């Protein structure tokens, strides 16, 4: 059965979608069966996977609201060599309609039950806010991967996010855990980044990944070509970092 990991941070611009696309591609490169779910109305993970978000028949909206079976929503073998459930602006309407649905926080969990045995990993790219979509993602997940920049405000936001995850765990998903904290857009020449990184390790210990994602031009360029960084420039430091992250996630799962 697939391990389901939400990639979430209430703060935008921390490399959340970049992480979702590239960790999915890196995990697929290790011959794991991977599904990426784009639950963000911006649809950036869909575009970064080489799929036109304006030209998809079914998205997360149909999955959550119209009860279209997951197997009919999944787009097979995208540019990243993983499967995809696309997202676009239609998902905004899904968030509103979910308010009228019974057991609304469990819609995604139940929708994925029929395909969980088809994958080793399912990654969910969450919106940069705590709303019904994010609640659905965390209710369906085994754990949460938190990307964050090593900046002061990001550190404060991380504490609030951890509190939110704990509250959600107590209400909708008692098995929900922190998968790990990922330092993104990291510049070792920046003193503040190093200071915040040390604070993170002191406060969160082993929950902080050893892998660090550097600031990298190739990571920024790859989405405009509709492909993950490892297929845009496999030799780039960004692509290598996400491959290392995939390896660390796999090792942690074995260790547990």
From TrEMBL:
Gene3D superfamilies for the chain: P-loop containing nucleotide triphosphate hydrolases
Sequence similarity: To B.subtilis soj.
Domain AAA residue range list: 2-178
InterPro entries to which the protein is assigned, alphabetical: AAA_dom, DNA_Partitioning_ATPase, P-loop_NTPase
CDD domains tied to this protein: ParAB_family
Domain of life: Bacteria
Parts of the chain that traverse the membrane: none
Species, as recorded: Glaciecola nitratireducens (strain JCM 12485 / KCTC 12276 / FR1064)
Protein name: Transcriptional regulator of chromosome partitioning protein
């Amino acid at each position: 059965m697939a391990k389901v990991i939400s990639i979430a941070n209430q703060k935008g611009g921390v490399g959340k979608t970049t992480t979702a696309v590239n960790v999915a591609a890196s995990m697929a490169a290790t011959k794991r069966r991977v599904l990426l779910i784009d639950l963000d109305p911006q649809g950036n993970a869909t575009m970064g996977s080489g799929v036109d978000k304006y030209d998809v028949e079914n998205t997360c909206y149909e999955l959550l609201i119209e009860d279209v079976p997951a197997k009919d929503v999944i787009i097979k073998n995208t540019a990243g060599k993983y499967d995809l459930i696309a997202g676009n602006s239609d998902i905004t309407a899904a968030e509103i309609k979910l308010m009228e649905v019974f057991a609304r926080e469990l819609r995604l969990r139940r929708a994925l039950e029929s395909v969980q045995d088809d994958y080793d990993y399912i990654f969910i790219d969450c919106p940069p806010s705590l709303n019904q979509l994010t609640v659905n993602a965390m209710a369906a997940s085994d754990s949460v991967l938190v990307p964050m920049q090593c900046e002061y405000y990001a550190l404060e936001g991380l504490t609030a996010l951890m509190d939110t995850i704990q509250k959600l765990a107590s209400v909708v998903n008692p098995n929900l855990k922190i998968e790990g904290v990922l330092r993104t857009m990291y510049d070792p020449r920046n003193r503040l980044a190093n200071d915040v990184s040390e604070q993170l390790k002191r406060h969160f210990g082993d929950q902080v990944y050893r892998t660090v994602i550097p600031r990298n031009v190739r990571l920024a360029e790859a989405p405009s070509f509709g492909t993950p960084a490892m297929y845009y420039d496999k030799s780039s430091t960004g692509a290598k970092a996400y491959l290392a992250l995939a390896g660390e996630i796999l090792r942690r799962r074995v260790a547990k």
